[in-house]
Amino acid sequence: MNSPWTLQSNVPTRIYERPLGLTELGFYWDCQFNGTADTLQHAIVEVLDSKHQHLFSIENVTRTWVALKQRFPLLGSRLAERRKGGDMVFVIAEDRLGYCGPGEMSMQDASSLAEAEALADSAVNGERLLSNELLARIVILRRTDQINQVHVLIHVAHCITDGIANASILRCFLDMLSSENGPGKWDLEERLALAASSEDLAPGRQLNQARHRWQYAIGKTIASNRLARLKGGHSLPRRFTQLTPFRPARSAHTTTSFSTEESKRIIQTCRAYGMTFGVALPVLAQVALTRVLCRRYLSGDIDKNEWEYRRKEPMTTGGPLNLRPFLDRSWYERGGIGDVSLKIGFFFRTLPFMPLGSASKLAPGDTLPDVQDMLSLPRFLLRCRSVQQQANRLVNHPLFLHISTARSQASISRLKVVVSQWKNKLEQAADHDIPVPDQGLVLSHGGSSMGNLDHLIPLDYPLSRTPGTAPILHLLKSGTQLHCRPGELYLGASTTRQQLHLFIHWDKNVYDEETVKEWLQEVRSATECYLGGLEHVNTRGKARL
């Protein structure tokens, strides 16, 4: 497999470089905006026997982190500019993979769960701790009130990671940390070949460079035309001003979980309907958002003009898409499936106007109808099929990869302007609210479903144990915190320990916490209503959108 990395120096150590791909470059400009899109993975680990407390000694953690960098060299990379305001490259020096540099690893005590969570929040919302010289870091928090519990915070810039990569980092760290045998030796050039950009791994790219450039140009045009057709839309009630795009987000997150029995019924119902929960999620979210907005209108918090605008608007969602299964097959089979690098594209899905049903003629002071009085089960399924059809059209397009990655190009120029204005403190304009109809293209929310994470992040370590040998470490809980983009509202889902979880990340500068939690509760209620049982599975009546 050819490598996109070039050897720049052999003395005194090997130094390699490669240019950032388009998606990586987009996230680079995100992170220049006070760490926007940086990810923090927060895991709570139990040491099952006190005799193994030494596993979290500074020596063992350092050894493990160094071994992890040698396996996934982007964790030890830095960013460098090769042309003023232009080309960015990853730089990897072999000797830097052999030690922990300043700020790369730290250990401290936490007196409680609340203190540990506060420290994690400060890493996301405080002064940025990552930089062009430090793209990944690890923090170990030792609980003084629960001496058998340790919090592991893994903080990584999004330009070198995604959801799959974050899972690999945590899984491999805990496995290496708890294994008696030392980590294996990794060939640097082989590992670098895996850490290629998505563009370098497009199937057939090496066969005909001219044809590849032609295909990318067409994909870019298609992506641009599709984006231009997206107009209008609306989201939860929010405060969106002229300065919102130039003000770093204050990130927050919240979660709700279904019981094991509830989760089983929901997943079984989805299978019976021939769809995944990820397909249903945008429709559930739309039903929930409609109910929040309708409640605001009926209580007089939304005036007639805004309501009439909202009720006629389509609703667009977007989110990340795992590209790994669509990339070079040789790369995938040699370890690309779980390599630490950024391998996502982006998609948009459009649903028709709010599903009001019997609420369409209500007036302020009236009572909000039940969920299925606003959208019947057959119409719910019809909208789910629309989501599936849109996804199929995207991934089945012959230029799918080119269209997906080209979308990043559209955001790079805009991000450069935002970063420039923020760094030069150009917040001098009057900060007036922008009315909903004048906000341009508005995504109702972003998001995606990660599916079942148990096979990506097992609970017990080390992974390789002789039969009958008890595990040493047990993963009690793990989750990811995101430094949101300005105005971001992200709804996600995942399954762990046979429980379905719904979570939201949002910008507190724009969205009110009470409103966000109300929406999440409505998503949960809609899930229970449409997917909570199998009694209506055969209801396949036809309906118009």
From TrEMBL:
Signal sequence annotation: none
Name of the protein in question: Condensation domain-containing protein
Species lineage: Eukaryota, Fungi, Dikarya, Basidiomycota, Agaricomycotina
